[in-house]
Amino acid sequence: MISQVPLLDQGMLARARLPAMSDSTLIQPWRRPDDEARLIDRSAHGLAALARAIAERLGRSPRVALPGWICSQALEPLRQTGAGLTYLPVSLRTGQIDWDAAERSGPFDILVVVHTFGEPVEMDPARALCARHDCFLVEDCAHALAPAAGIADAGDAVLFSPHKLFPLPEGAVLSLSSAASGWAADLDRALGRPPMAGDDRAWLNHRLFQDAVPDSLRRFVPQSGLSRFEADPPLSDPPSPVAPSDMARRLLAAADIAEETRRRRDNAEALSKVVSRLKDVRLLFPKSKAVPYRLALRADNPQVAAARFAALRQAHLPVESWPDLPPRVVADPNHADGAMTLRNTVLLLPVHGALNADDLARAYRRILK
């Protein structure tokens, strides 16, 4: 079935029956040589732990700078640490941080750079800013499939979220560079020893059901996600940190990065050809060579985005807006021509590896005319 979330296939389930690996072996594909890396449940909990570790050394709450074009819900664990958050304006064309504005907004203790939708961000300005302010550089690679050129090669800390790109109930990786390895003990204290995740059978049964439903019956399956483009999910308390379950670890070991890379690129190419015929919607990153998290589209205006969103929802085809911006970003006029415009014009289509390129193109072509 064409779904927004990655689905399990029989190959991954078969590989997940192999003997369990150690955590250090399990997370090897997501860590750089000489990194101190940890398997955690969610990257949001990893960022919060970094803030707590740095606060312990500073003797005060850290000042954290983040791009304004960022998901508010994902920042709730960080907010609960008491860290002071500053949202930096972003470029309307690329969604990347406006580095001139960032320089005027400092000083900071932590700078978070996000590779949104897996698209590499220019890291030289980030490194230069951190050198001037003596701050800790965090690369948020939660939308990236794995380390690649321009991804995970500059941060003092790097966060990956395999559970967002593969069918996993939980699973993320937090790495410290060799230069930042002196923070490992502080980080471990901040992470603590969370309890093991609960029973994942309900999650597994739901994913298996979705995979078993023929696409011809998609219209009879209740839709997930928000029903209106303009709507944002209500802010809720984040789940408490847990240690990934045995099922999550086995499925993570079964993940095939090379095959997922191929399938995502094939699916994105198929949908890109559909989009290329449209007059009012285009690719957000038309020259991208990155492995896509979603296929990101940019509509000419909010009205077009809302209409396209509604038409796809009516056809029971997956489509998303992104993100639910922090309230302070929404209220700040400095973000009107960057984060706010992107929020109001960007549409996301699924490209994960459980999908078939021909089926995707055929289904979306009927609606995107």
Key attributes of the depicted protein:
DegT/DnrJ/EryC1/StrS aminotransferase; alpha/beta; 369 residues; three-stranded antiparallel sheet; PyrdxlP-dep_Trfase_major; Aspartate Aminotransferase, domain 2; pyridoxal phosphate binding
Structural topology:
Elements: H1 10-15, H2 23-26, E1 36-40, H3 43-58, E2 63-67, H4 76-79, E3 84-88, H5 99-105, E4 110-114, H6 124-133, E5 136-141, E6 157-160, H7 162-165, E7 172-176, H8 184-191, H9 201-212, H10 246-254, H11 257-275, E8 281-283, E9 295-299, H12 302-314, H13 327-331, H14 336-345, E10 346-349, H15 357-367
Parallel strand pairs: 2-3, 2-4, 4-5, 5-6
Antiparallel strand pairs: 1-7, 6-7, 8-9, 9-10
Helix pairs in contact: 3-8, 11-15
Protein name: DegT/DnrJ/EryC1/StrS aminotransferase
Organism: Magnetospirillum molischianum DSM 120
Family: Belongs to the DegT/DnrJ/EryC1 family.
Description:
The protein has 369 residues and is an alpha/beta fold. It has a domain at 10-191: Type I PLP-dependent aspartate aminotransferase-like (Major domain) (Aspartate Aminotransferase, domain 2, 3-Layer(aba) Sandwich), CATH 3.40.640.10. Helices cover 37% and strands 13% of the residues. The chain has 15 helices and 10 strands. It has helices at residues 10-15, 23-26, 43-58, 76-79, 99-105, 124-133, 162-165, 184-191, 201-212, 246-254, 257-275, 302-314, 327-331, 336-345, 357-367; strands at residues 36-40, 63-67, 84-88, 110-114, 136-141, 157-160, 172-176, 281-283, 295-299, 346-349. The strands form 2 sheets. The chain has a 7-stranded mixed β-sheet with strand order 1-7-6-5-4-2-3, sandwiched between helices. A 3-stranded antiparallel β-sheet has the order 8-9-10. Helix 4 (76-79) links the parallel strand 2 and strand 3 (84-88). The longest helix is centred in the last third of the chain and has 19 residues, at 257-275. The chain is globular. The model has no long low-confidence stretch (mean pLDDT 95). It holds the Pfam family DegT_DnrJ_EryC1. InterPro entries: DegT/StrS_aminotransferase, PyrdxlP-dep_Trfase, PyrdxlP-dep_Trfase_major. GO terms for molecular function: pyridoxal phosphate binding; transaminase activity.
